[in-house]
Amino acid sequence: MPQLTVDFAGARPARSGTLSFGHANIVRAIGIDDDPTRLNLAMVFGVPADGGPDRIAAQLRTLLERHESLRTTYVLTTPPTQRVAATGTLVVELVEADGDPLDTAERTARRLRASPFDLESELPFRAALVTADGVPRQLVWVVTHAAMDVAACEVLHAEWAALCAGRELPEPPALEPVDVVGLERSASVQRIGAGAVQYWGAQIGRVPQAVFPPPTGTPAKTDWLHPGLSVRSTAAPAHLAAVAQRTGASASTVVLAALGVLVGHRTGHRTVPVTSLSGNRVVPTLRGFFGSLAQDALLPLDLDGLTGFDDVVRRVQAAGLPAYRHSWFDPTAVWRAIEAASAERGTSFARDLVFNDMSALAAAAGSPDESARGRLPGVWIPGHQEPPVPEPGLGGSVGWVPAEDVPCRFFACLYRLAGEFELTLWLDPQTLSGAEAEEFGRALLRLFAAAAEEDVALKELPSLTTLAPVERGPGWYLSDRCWVELAAVRTLVAEVLADLVTGTPHLVTAEPDDDLGHRLVCHLAGPADPRDVQRRALAALPGRAGAITPHRYVVHDGAPAPARTGDPRAWSGLPVLSDSSGRPSQGGLT
């Protein structure tokens, strides 16, 4: 295949260092993901109308020399380190278009994205130049998330557009990724990090471990290939602006509040934990930063005590302040806090509802109407998209877009807020069926329109949608804010006991509790060790959204007759050898 070589030489000598918080977090995620190509970002850019391959090479050279993250490799030790090359060569594929150059560019981008990066030896981005009759038409850019996050994509779009227009670039950002480590060692950022550890531990200790009921069947890699529901409306921006003006919140906050209200209505949760992605450019020296700093902000939407949608918007706005402030953290310390809080509650946080506001990327891309033919997390492809014909009485439309590999059960990507509202919901079909997902999208637009006129009473929400709450049959209990299926807890304990002592008689029951709603009690026939049972149950818990570990373990001297093992009354008459809490803070198992 024909190639274009781009030699580069940075202004600084080669250097190395440890990773910043966000950087380390994403490198860790790439290392543990069963398919690291999910964390490759693919984009297609236009090229100068009068630019040949030499000009494209010169523009790529400018970016390589300007941004150290584009010439960084990694030593994947513990902890990992980064190595910035002073010089090197980027090899760019030359691809002659087969038909429409944009179609060829999209196919090329998907091909390049489908191969994992060798972070230790390979430059962290790949490029291909699509030509038509030898004339450059499109540039394909595929980069590992270790080198760039979405905020860096915004910078890249703006800089590439400036280079194509022949404009000079502004002064480069003050800090490179290696330099951020020094900033994070400052006393002020250390205080932020310490606060984040406390915040995450406290929130994981109170929010539902999962938003959606557990999937049926055995999870497989293909389960993450989720269809996307595109929700678009030219009327919604005005509706959102009206609510934002009345509440003092941003339009993005109004969208997030509406999503939370509808998800709460659907799932029966009074607290909806939302993971919102945060770019973390929170101090002046990080503005325009080019690299990967993004981390999770955990935003709990508490619906208790609220009567109107305006109240929900204001609560989301208030909850967002500490959530985003505590999204800049040492991932190792926060994961320890998450694990400690999870062990205390006997839960495993699912991170199954994620929100990503990418509307700033649409603005940075330079399209007059901020539209595009394709979007991340697939391939960002430039091009005008005519708004779909609105459905009667809706002011917008819903429609399906091709599935993408998204490791989350409900991923809401907000793409546009100006001129046209555009949101795509990447959905596990077991969270919402096709018809239910379409009704969810329509309900979202109806809620925007109604809230623009006046504050919407939450008790009136069912009048805006035919989407019914999840039906949970007998055997489901609300326990410590988590919806728990007793059969799933019993299966968990049975599997653990099968690994320890085959055939140990046992029974898990759900008993009413003023504080928890229901308390799970595990009855065991001695000589089973409840400490071992609890430890192994915690280890086996991830992926079981309908189960938590028992709150209490009662070890009996003997067991009921086999025919009565499933009868709680049969256990209550047996002598008790030990009665202990499954929660360390209550003097329980350690």
Give the SSE layout:
Blueprint: E1 3-9, E2 15-18, H1 21-32, E3 40-46, H2 53-66, E4 72-75, E5 81-84, E6 87-96, H3 101-113, E7 125-132, E8 135-144, H4 150-164, H5 177-184, H6 187-204, E9 225-233, H7 236-247, H8 251-267, E10 271-278, E11 295-302, H9 309-325, H10 331-345, E12 353-357, H11 359-364, E13 379-380, E14 397-405, E15 410-416, E16 421-427, H12 434-453, E17 476-479, E18 482-485, H13 486-500, E19 506-513, E20 517-525, H14 530-540, E21 552-556, H15 568-572, E22 576-581
Parallel strand pairs: 3-13, 6-7, 10-12, 12-15, 20-21
Antiparallel strand pairs: 1-6, 2-5, 3-8, 4-5, 7-8, 9-14, 9-16, 10-11, 15-16, 17-18, 19-20, 21-22
Stretches with pLDDT under 50, minimum 5 residues = none
**Percent of residues in beta strands:** 15-25%
* Number of E-type strands: 22
Radius of gyration: 26 Å
First and last CA, distance = 61 Å
**What is the 3D form?**
globular
Largest sheet: 7 strands, mixed
Helix % is: 25-40%
Output mean pLDDT.
Answer: 92
List keywords for this structure.
590 residues, 7-stranded mixed β-sheet, 6-stranded mixed β-sheet, 15 helices, 25% strand
